[in-house]
Write a structure and sequence with these properties.
By secondary structure, this protein is an all-alpha fold. It has helices spanning about 1-5, 25-50, 55-80, 85-105, 115-135, 140-160, 165, 190-215, 215-225, 230-235, 240-265, 275-290, 290-315, 320-345, 350-365; strands at about 10-15, 20-25, 175, 265. It has 2 domains: about 20-270, no CATH class; about 275-365, no CATH class. The longest helix has 27 residues, at about 240-265.
């Protein structure tokens, strides 16, 4: 026993009663992720006081999109499954939170616990949809998998129009949201409160995803992505792993859609069209596939693109009809052009380029001689 203990590295000691090695790095990883999340939360609070209300709303929108892009990063970047239907999963979470908040308001129920309850219901409903789609996706590969998720992206918004008695058709549903707590003061900006709520939910989701990626589940995701045959020979249940990855990704997408509905205080089928699913996929590729920091860059791009499109159309002297048509198609063209440029200049995305630049700067820094 002593020889075995001496042969193990310091982070793998036989502390388990059954004689199995225990990885001490798990605790340090969790503490490191908690420290990063706490620092990000403090930075977000400080930033909310430093910027104007509209910027607070934009930052909250970035946080909502980050939930969806982070989940898609886990699914596509770590597990290798292509999804063109994450906009539909976001719509599922958005409509669920709208129905829950409306039901609470109709019954005269109030309280700060109602919104977390509605967000939890949105996550559960999206998990159920994601599990069904994931079971089908685990049996498909390549273009067949893309076709199934593409069908989901088309069918789910169409259901909202078909069952207009429940979902109010193209008009959509309103999302009643209570004002900030009175303890924050009578003149507390509502946009700042939106940023706090959305940021807290997003940071919690990122903390769970970061620990999942560094756990044995993350390693099985990568093993299945790299070689399914080798993973199966190693004892990994490939189909179960793929379904789990799809469920995790669906849960975060549902949370992102629910947060977007809370921010807009309304939800409609047009907000979750097929274009949104394409934008989400291109955003995670441009940001850096397989990296949570890359998902952040993709979420920023999703929010900054409409402003860029509006600025470009204002600079051009066009007729109103042509300007409206250009503003509707220009975002997709800019996204496609950016994707081509990034894939040529930086195949690892924005985060991959930044990582290479950081390593190059560190390599050029003179080392201290002993």
């Amino acid at each position: 026993m002593s020889a075995t203990r001496a042969a193990l590295p310091p982070t793998h000691q036989l502390d388990d009663p059954g004689g199995r090695p225990v990885d001490r790095r798990r605790g340090s990883t969790l503490l490191r992720h908690l420290a990063v999340v706490l620092a990000a939360g403090l930075l977000l609070v400080a930033l909310s006081y430093a910027v104007e209300p509209f910027r607070n709303f934009q930052l909250a929108t970035v946080a909502a999109y980050l939930c969806a892009t982070a989940g898609l990063t886990v699914l596509t970047g770590l597990n290798g499954q292509l999804s063109l239907g994450h906009g539909a999963l976001m719509a599922t979470g958005a409509y669920t939170v709208a129905l829950c908040q409306t039901a609470f308001a109709d019954r005269g129920m109030t309280g700060g616990w109602l919104l977390p309850l509605s967000l939890g219901a949105a996550i559960l409903s999206t998990v159920a949809v994601g599990a069904v789609v994931g079971v089908a996706a685990a049996r498909l590969r390549g273009p067949y998998l893309a076709g199934v998720t593409l069908a989901v992206a088309v069918v789910v918004p169409a259901l909202a129009v078909t069952f207009d008695g429940v979902f109010n058709g193209e008009q959509g549903l309103s999302v009643p949201v209570e004002p900030p707590p009175l303890s924050l003061g009578p003149y507390f900006p509502y946009e700042r409160w939106q940023l706090w709520v959305t940021g807290a939910a997003t940071l919690l989701a990122l903390l769970l995803l970061a620990n999942l990626i560094r756990s044995r589940y993350g390693r099985t995701f990568r093993a299945v992505r790299d070689d399914e045959v080798a993973a199966r020979l190693a004892g990994i249940h490939v189909a179960r792993t793929q379904v789990l990855a799809f469920v995790v990704s669906a849960a975060t997408a549902g949370l992102g859609g629910a947060l977007l509905a809370v921010l807009a205080q309304s939800v409609s089928p047009g907000a979750f069209s097929l274009t949104l699913s394409l934008f989400l996929l291109m955003a995670v590729v441009i940001g850096g596939l397989g990296r949570l920091t890359g998902a952040l860059w993709g979420a920023v791009l999703l929010v900054a693109l409409p402003d860029l499109t509006h600025s470009v159309t204002e600079m051009l002297t066009l007729s109103p009809a042509l300007a409206q048509r250009l503003e509707g198609n220009l975002p997709l063209a800019i996204f496609g052009l950016t994707l081509i440029v990034v894939m040529i200049a930086a195949p690892g995305g924005v985060q991959g380029l930044l990582s290479r630049l950081g390593r190059a700067l560190l390599a050029r820094r003179p080392t201290r001689r002993s």
